[in-house]
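Q: What residues go here?
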């Protein structure tokens, strides 16, 4: 697994992709009656009681905002709290003035753009043309475009919103910024959301000014280059977990395959050959048998690409040749695959706790007790089965606990507090320990069942035997690479040695340290 998990988890009514849309609703003819969405996300009482939102100090830099929607309100709140003097331009300032901090000046658009040197444009793209009447007052000023297109608009228009705004106001300097920050993050502060603010513009001086504003507001500016990059920046909020699509499809495919396999063995075979109706097992029992299979295979797929990469480096005798594209993408998706493995393992643990609560389980216990009475068996105790279950459960708990450490250290806040050696130890060494514990857990579960003829239903082997294939290959390969002949050669390759190079290369005396600090 590699280090990570996104997100603004709060149920905010709007995000940056839609916030701009609330602004023109206030400032264009034919607007709707004031409703729930017109109420500020932060109450007026809270705004006025916050000392940081009081009257700005004299000489505070003045910033203008065109628009009065949710995003404009949140932006004004954050700017005032950061020490800026804010002027908001609205078509109906009397109606919207009460929605902003008391220190904010809400006036008509013509007056709002007169004195500030930086103007935030918080309106929809289709309303940009309505601002053309302000072109004389806006000449020479910096326009910050915070809008986002919808997916359909992004595909429909060949130029970005920022580039379109720049074409309408050629005498202004347009900067694309703050479009990936939600209204909630602006109000709650960067501690509760994403800190990075991508910025792009054709004028370096304008980017410097906006970057300083971003720093003053508590965020981190990220220079994305010229305004031609605005289309890429505007596409960021439209992406829905792009790094998770392939791992999620992989996990879903494994789940479907193992579920179908377990259904054939545990439900269909008894029904066809013995006439027993065991379809009640589908919601819990079959799912609980499938989840550990998926988790176990996914965990092995986290470490298999590292093994393949090491084998390629050994075969090529160099680290300076690119891996195949499929392997490169696989290496980049290890974190997501590992987190999905942890998710499935956690669900397996929860399902296992629910097994004794099922009504079918209670009936089985009653039937077993009745059978014991009828056969005059007063004591049932199989020593081997008792020990097997104790060891099996203990190894499962240890494996899940180790996986939990891997999942926690994948969080950016935790990963950033670790140095490279600590992070590598957790993700590589403890990850391999988790794989070994999971393998022992699986072997203890299977015990001698792989050699019992009755376990082969429809001539299909037990499910656990299939799951052992990939993990055992990974463990054996890892053990092979620990041999001195392979270990030293890998260490030399990862420190720059090449097989066909004429340069002599000597490893440091502490080859063990070399191995610990060199990784694929």
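A:
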């Amino acid at each position: 697994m590699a280090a990570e998990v996104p997100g603004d988890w709060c149920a905010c009514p709007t995000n940056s992709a839609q916030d701009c849309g609330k602004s023109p609703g206030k400032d264009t003819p034919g607007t709707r009656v004031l409703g729930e969405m017109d109420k500020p996300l932060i109450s007026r009482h809270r705004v006025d009681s916050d000392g940081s939102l009081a009257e700005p100090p004299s000489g505070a830099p003045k910033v203008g905002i065109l628009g009065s929607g949710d995003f404009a309100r949140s932006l004004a709140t954050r700017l005032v709290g950061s020490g800026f003097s804010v002027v908001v331009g609205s078509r109906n300032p009397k109606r919207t003035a009460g929605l902003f901090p008391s220190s904010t000046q809400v006036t008509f658009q013509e007056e709002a753009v007169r004195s500030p040197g930086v103007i935030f444009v918080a309106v929809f793209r289709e309303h940009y043309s309505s601002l053309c009447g302000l072109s004389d007052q806006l000449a020479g000023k910096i326009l910050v475009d915070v809008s986002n297109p919808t997916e359909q608009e992004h595909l429909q228009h060949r130029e970005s919103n920022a580039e379109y705004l720049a074409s309408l106001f050629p005498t202004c300097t347009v900067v694309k910024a703050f479009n990936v920050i939600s209204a909630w993050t602006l109000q709650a502060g960067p501690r509760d959301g994403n800190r990075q603010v991508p910025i792009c513009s054709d004028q370096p001086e304008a980017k410097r000014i906006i970057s300083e504003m971003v720093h003053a507001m508590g965020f981190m500016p990220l220079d994305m280059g010229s305004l031609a990059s605005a289309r890429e920046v505007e596409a960021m909020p439209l992406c829905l977990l792009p790094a998770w699509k392939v791992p999620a499809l992989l996990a879903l495919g494994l789940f479907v395959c193992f579920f179908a396999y377990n259904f054939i063995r545990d439900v269909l075979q008894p029904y066809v050959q013995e006439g027993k109706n065991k379809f009640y097992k589908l919601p819990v029992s079959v799912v609980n048998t499938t989840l550990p299979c998926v988790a176990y295979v996914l965990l092995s797929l986290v470490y298999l690409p590292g093994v393949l990469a090491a084998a390629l480096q050994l075969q090529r005798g160099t680290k300076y040749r690119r891996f195949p594209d499929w392997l490169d993408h696989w290496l980049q998706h290890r974190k997501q695959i590992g987190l999905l493995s942890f998710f499935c393992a956690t669900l397996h643990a929860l399902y296992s706790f629910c097994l004794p609560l099922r009504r079918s389980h209670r009936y089985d216990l009653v039937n077993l007790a009745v059978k014991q009475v009828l056969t005059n068996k007063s004591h049932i105790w199989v020593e081997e089965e008792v020990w097997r279950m104790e060891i099996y459960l203990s190894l499962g708990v240890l494996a899940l606990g180790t996986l939990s450490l891997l999942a926690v250290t994948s969080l950016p806040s935790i990963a950033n507090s670790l140095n490279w050696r600590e992070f590598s130890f957790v993700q590589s060494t403890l990850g391999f320990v988790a794989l070994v514990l999971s393998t022992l857990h699986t072997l203890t579960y299977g015990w001698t069942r792989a050699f019992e003829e009755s376990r082969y239903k429809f001539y299909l082997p037990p499910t656990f035997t299939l799951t052992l294939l990939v993990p055992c290959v990974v463990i054996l390969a890892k053990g092979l690479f620990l041999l001195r002949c392979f270990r030293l050669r890998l260490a030399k390759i990862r420190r720059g040695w090449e097989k066909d190079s004429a340069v002599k290369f000597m490893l440091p005396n502490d080859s063990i340290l070399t191995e610990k600090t060199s990784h694929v």
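A: Context that may help when evaluating the design: Residues 372 and 378 are 7 Å apart (CA to CA). The longest strand covers residues 196-201.
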